[in-house]
Amino acid sequence: MATKPSRGAFIVIEGLDRSGKSTQAATLLERLQSRNIPVKFHKFPDRVTPIGQMIDSYLRSKSDLDDHVIHLLFSANRWELAATVEQTLNSGTHIVCDRYAFSGIAFTASKPSQIPFEWCRTPDISLPAPDLILYLDISPNKAKERGGYGEERYEQEEMQTRVREVYRRMREETMAVGSNRESENRPQWVEIDAGRSVEDVGKEIWIHVEPFVQPSGISKPIGRLWMDRLPSAGVTL
């Protein structure tokens, strides 16, 4: 019997602003590289692309865009690299990703404009799904104590509190096994206390990542985000 070809693992790090995502992503990347484990890094938004440059201007409060428009730009920025993500994984290389579709939903759904959660999710349906989501949980009050807080548009405590609640909703949905969902393709969501030292958080992250980066790779196919939430499945937009 022929064996399925192995692929790399898609690992996403999520969390509130100043929760330590970029620091932990860099630490994890270095750890993997030091072990000669093939890995590539992605960060969203990717501010280098033409769409990414528009997003960067918005985040730095140098331009204003309608909430619906900026949300769709964030999604388009992820779609720009969707094919690259799949090619990288299928080549046997792992991906460490700083923010992904979950951030896009959490931040837009938390805005005062009250854009519906399901509307926020729809543009990202069928994006490549991560295998592991590492959610760095920290209270907005604790995050505010960290350097650089408030430099970008969304870094206000009230906003971050709402964002945290939306992340909790996504965590519950991701961990639930619905009757029309293939459980083997569900991402694994792990919540990590990010209020601790950088070293302690990094050690816990590695405990969860190590099983995903074994030489044997991952045999199951790349999943697709929220396929059970397609409008044809009864979603009201």
TrEMBL record:
Name the protein family. Belongs to the thymidylate kinase family.
Q: Which GO terms describe its biological process?
A: dTDP biosynthetic process; dTTP biosynthetic process; dUDP biosynthetic process
* MF-aspect GO terms: ATP binding; dTMP kinase activity; nucleoside diphosphate kinase activity
Native source organism of the sequence: Stereum hirsutum (strain FP-91666) (White-rot fungus)
Q: Say which domain of life the source belongs to.
A: Eukaryota
EC id: 2.7.4.9
Q: In which pathway does it act?
A: Pyrimidine metabolism; dTTP biosynthesis
Q: Is this entry keyworded Iron-sulfur?
A: no
Q: Which GO terms describe its cellular component?
A: cytosol; nucleus
The record's section on NCBIfam families has: DTMP_kinase (TIGR00041)
Gene3D superfamilies linked to this entry? P-loop containing nucleotide triphosphate hydrolases (3.40.50.300)
Classification via InterPro entries? P-loop_NTPase, Thymidylate_kin-like_dom, Thymidylate_kinase
Known PANTHER family for this protein?
Answer: THYMIDYLATE KINASE (PTHR10344)
| Name of the molecule in the record | Thymidylate kinase
Identify the residues that the record assigns to the Thymidylate kinase-like domain, covering every copy: 13-205
| Keywords for the protein's UniProt record, in alphabetical order | ATP-binding, Kinase, Nucleotide biosynthesis, Nucleotide-binding, Transferase
Q: Which residues cross the membrane?
A: none
